[in-house]
Structures
1.
Amino acid sequence: MAPRVGVLALQGAVEKHMRHLEAAGAIPRPVLLPTDLEGLDAIILPGGESTTMSRLLRTSGLFEPLRDFMRSHPVLATCAGMILLSSQVDNLPYEPYALLDIDVDRNAWGRQIFSFHEDIPWALPSGNGSAAPEMLKAIFIRAPRITRQGVGVEVLATIKDEPVAVRQGHFVALTFHPELSADNRVHRWFLSEIVAPDSC
Amino acid sequence: MKVSTFEEKVGLAEMIKGGVIMDVTNADQAKIAEDAGAAAVMALERIPSDIRADGGIARMSDPKMIKEIQAAVTIPVMAKCRIGHIAEAKLLEALEVDFVDESEVLTPADDANHIYKHNFKIPFVCGCRNLGEALRRVGEGAAMIRTKGEAGTGNIVEATRHLRSVIGGIRRLTLLDPDELMAEAKNLGAPFELVKQVAETGKLPVPNFSAGGVATPADAALMRMLGAEAVFVGSGIFKSSDPERMAKAIVEATTHFEDAERLVEISTGLGQAMRGLDMAEIPEDQILQNRGW
C-alpha cells in the first residue's frame, strides 16, 4: 500500500513537497489540524519561516499532537522544518521540539543574496543496499547551519566538511531544499529507507 | 557553487508562500510583525495610505531605516524601489535586502520601461492587474508576482478584480489549442514562451501573491480562496485600532482560510479596521494601479 505522508501546511513550501511525494508513489496530505494526523505513516516539516510556523503550531492546537506523532513516526525536515526539530536554536523566540540532537544557527549563510546551489555527494542507497555516492543538487535558501550534532546523529552529506543532511533514527533533517529541484531521489529514499524499510 | 541564480530567487518566494508580508515603517513595527507571525516585512518610510494622503513624490526609503529593520528581525526584509529606477534597485541590492518590490506605490522613474531584473543578484517582486502584465514582469526577471489591488485604500475590490483576472487568464490559456497561443500572446502583450508554459502547466512560472486593499482577516482569506499563494498587507495593520491583534489575526486567517469556524474566532472583537476608501472617492490621477507598463 502506498504510504500516506503528511506535509505540515501552516506556512511555507508545502506544494512542492506534495508533488515530489506524489511522484515518488506516496499519498500526500496537508496537515493543518490535529485530526489531519490520523492515519498518516510519516510527516514532512517543510521550509518556510520558522518563527511563523512556531507561532502557528501553538495557535492551531497542533503543537502537542504533532510532537506525539513525531515520536513514533518517520519525519523528513527541511530548512525551517529542521529548526523546529532541533535541540537548540540561536535567536528563535520559541522552544524547538528537541527531538533531534543537533544545534542550529538560523540564516547562518547570510541573507538571500548569498543563497546558492551546489552538487553534493550523497550516498543514496540505490535500491538493493549498494551505496555508491551519487551527486545531488542541493539548493540552499537563507539556510541554517548545524553547529553541533550529538553522538547518535549520522551525517548523510556534507558541504566543505560541515553537515547539511543528518539522520537520527526515524528523523532525517536537511539544511537544503530537495523539494525545489526537479529530482525526487531524496523523497524516494525517505519513503523506501525510513518510512517502509521492510517493503523493498 | 552557483550563487543567487533564478532558482534561488524563486526558492525564497516558495518559502514565503502561505504567509503574510507586512508593511512596516520602523524597527518596532517590524518586531510586532515578526512576533505576530509575518513571513516577511516590507520596509518603507510611509505606508501607502499616508503616501496617498501626503501627495508629492514617493521614493525609495532611507537606507538607515532599512538597516534598522534588518537588524531588528530575522525574517526576510523587502524594500521598494520606483518602477524603472535601476539605481535605487542597485542601492537595495547593496543593502542586501531579501526582495525588491519594483512598486507602483512609489512614483515611477521611467514611464515606458521596467527594470531588467535578471541583471540583479537579489530577487524582485512586481505588481500586475492581469495575466499579460504578470508575464511581462516574469519575462523581465521577476521571481514573484503580486496582484496590485489599490494600495492604501483598505478596499479589497481591486485586489479581487486583479486576482480573478490573472487566475481567469490562466484558466483560459489552458483551454486554448496550441494554434491559438501566438494570437493570445499578442493579445496579452506577453512573451510567447511564457504563454506556452502557462498553457501547459496551468500555473504562473513564479509564485502568485496578492496585495492592495487587505484590511481584515476575511479579506486575507478571500485572497487565498481566489488563488493567492500569500498576502501582502500594507496599511491594513498599522492603520487599525489594535495593530498587534490585527497582525496576528491576519496571519492566522491566511493559514486557516478554508476553516470558517476558525475565521469567526479569529475575527471576533478585533476593534476598528482601517477606515478605507471607496474607489469613486479617488481622483483618476491618484489611482496607483495604472502605474506600470
2.
Amino acid sequence: MTEPLVQARQLTKHYVLRGGLFSRRQVVRALHWVDLTVYPGETFGVVGESGCGKTTLGRCLLRLVEPTFGEVLFRGENLLQLDRETLRQRRRYFQMLFQNPYLSLDPRMNVLNLVGEPLVTHTDLRGRALAERVAALLERVGLSADHLYRYPHEFSGGQLQRIAIARALALNPLFVVLDEPTSALDVSVQAQILNLLKDLQAELGLTYLFISHDLSVVQHVSDRIAVMYLGRVVEVGTTEGIFYDARHPYTQALISSTPIPDPQARRSRVILQGSVPSPLNPPPGCSFHPRCAQALPLCATEEPRLVDVGDGHLVACHRAG
Amino acid sequence: MREPLISVRDLQVHFHTHAGVVHALNGVSFDLYPGEILGLVGETGCGKSVTGLALLGLIPPPGQVVGGEIRYRGQNILTLPPAQMRALRGGKIAMIFQDPAAALNPVFTVGEQIELVTRRHRRMGREAARRQAAEVLRSVGMPEPERILDTYPHELSGGMQQRVMIAMALSCGAEVLVADEPTTALDVTIQAQILDLLVDLKRTRGLSILLITHNLGVVAETCDRVAVLYAGFIVETGPTGAIFQSMKHPYTQGLLAAIPHPSSRGRPLQAVPGTVPDGLQLPPGCLFHPRCPFAWDRCRQERPVLREVADGHQVACHLYAGEAER
C-alpha cells in the first residue's frame, strides 16, 4: 500500500461571529470533523453545494486558514505544529489554484513578476535565468515568452488561468489544491484547461485536490471523490462508486439533479425540497435529515459516522451499511 | 401553422464605445411560439443577454438597435411610443435575471415590491394588490405566502428569491417570460426546483419562455426548441431532440463535445481552439471560420445564412449549403 501524501484527521474549522453588545455569540461550523486521505498521483475530487465547506477544507489543508481543531499530515508531518519558518519552507510543496484568475492575479504585476514571484521567494534565480525559467513555464502551459511583459488585463480568462497555473507550478509542487479552477470559464475554454491540468499531472506526477460544484467536471477528472454537505464529508468513494453506486441520499439527489446534455436521458429525478440549512444553526443529528426522504427517527437525534461499506467506500448515513 | 408570439428578424445591436463600434448582435432572427420554452444558448459575450434585453426595450446606452425588428403579436415593438412600451414591459413581456439578490430591492419587503408592479400596471387598490401578490406567490410554489409578503429579500434563500422574481414577473399576466440565466447563481438541487417550476408554468399557464443559458444540460432537460448564438449571430436552431441527435454546425458540435461526459473519462476533452471573436473586429465571412476545423475559402469571404436542413432545423454553415442549392 502506498503511503498517503496528505491526511486530514478530525479537521474542524469554526468561525465565531461576535455580534453586537446584546447579541449572542454564534458559531459557524464551516468544517466539522473531516477525515480524508489523499494518495500520491491521484486526483481527489471534492463536491458539494455553496457553503458546504469545500473551499474551507482546501484552505485548511494548506494551512491558509488556521483550523480550529484536528491534524493535517503532509508526508506524515503535522503541518499544524510547524513553526513559521519551517512552514514557509514546506509551502513550496503545496500550492493552490483559485477560481477567479481576474482576482487571484495582481493587475499591477506583469507576467514575469506574477510567475516569477514564487521563484524569487524560494530560490536564488534572478535576472535572465529567472526570465528563462518563467518563459519555459509559460510555454509549458500553452503561452509563450512574448507574454512575459504583458499585464493581466491584456489576457482572456482562459489565458489568465494558464498564467495562474504556471505560477502554481513554478516551484515543482507535489500537491495542488484546485479550487473551482474552471467555474469562471466557458465550456470550450474549460475543456482546454482541464486537458492542460491532466497533461501536467501526468508529466510532473502531481497530486490534485479538485474542488468543484460541477459533478460532470469532477466525474471527468477524479479518481476518488468526497461529497460534502454542511461542513461534513457524507460520502467518499471511487468515481465509479460515487456515480454508479451512491449510497448517501444526498449524493443520489445531487447526481440526479445535475442536468445532462442529452434529451434522451430522461431520468427519474429526485428533486430535493427546501434548501441547505444555515451552518449557524445546523440541524441536530444528521444535518441532511430535514431534506431527506428516507429519514428515520434516529436521524433527527444521532449524528451518523462515516463507515466503510466495502472497498473503502465510506458513507455517513444510518440507512447505509 | 401557429402564429409566433414574438418574432425577431435580423436584429442588429451596436455599442458605440470609445474604442470603436462593438457589434453585439449581427442579425439575430428567431420565433417564440405560445406555450413553448426556447433555449438561447451561447458562451460569454455572444449576445444572449443583449437579445433578452432587446425584447424589453432595455438595451443600455451606449447600445443601440441599428437594424431589424422585434414583433410581438405582429406589432413591431421597436417603434412603439415609450408609454406603450412601458405598459408592455412588465405587463405582457417580463424578465427575470441571473442574480435575484441584485434584482430585488433590499429595502422593500417582497410584498411591497410585487404590489408595486400590479398597482402600477393594473391600477389595483392596496388590499386587492396584496391579495393578488399572495396568490401569485402561492402559484410559484412558495410556502406560507402571507408570511413571505412581509419578509425582506435578504431573509430568503437564492432559490426563494428567484421564485419571488418569477412571481413578480407573472403578477400582471405575462405571456412571455425572458429568463436570463435564471439558475446560474443557484446550486444544482435548487436549480432543479426552479427549472421544474418553469416547465410547470409553461404547461399550466401556457407561458412562453425565452430561456437564456450557457448550459446545454439545462437546455436538454427543459427546452422545446434551441437557438445557438455565436458572436451575435444564430448559427443553428431547431427542435431540442433534433439538435442533440444531429448537430450540424461545427460550433454546436464543438460546444457539446467540450462538456465532460461519463464516456469521456480518462480521455482528453475536445476543446474548441481559440477564443470568441472581439465584437470590435469581427472576422469577415463566417464569424466562426477562424476556429472552425472545416473552414475553406468560401467561409472566409461569405457569411452563411440560416438554411433549413430538416423540418424546423436550420443551420448557417456553408458545409450544408450544397444540399439546399442542389
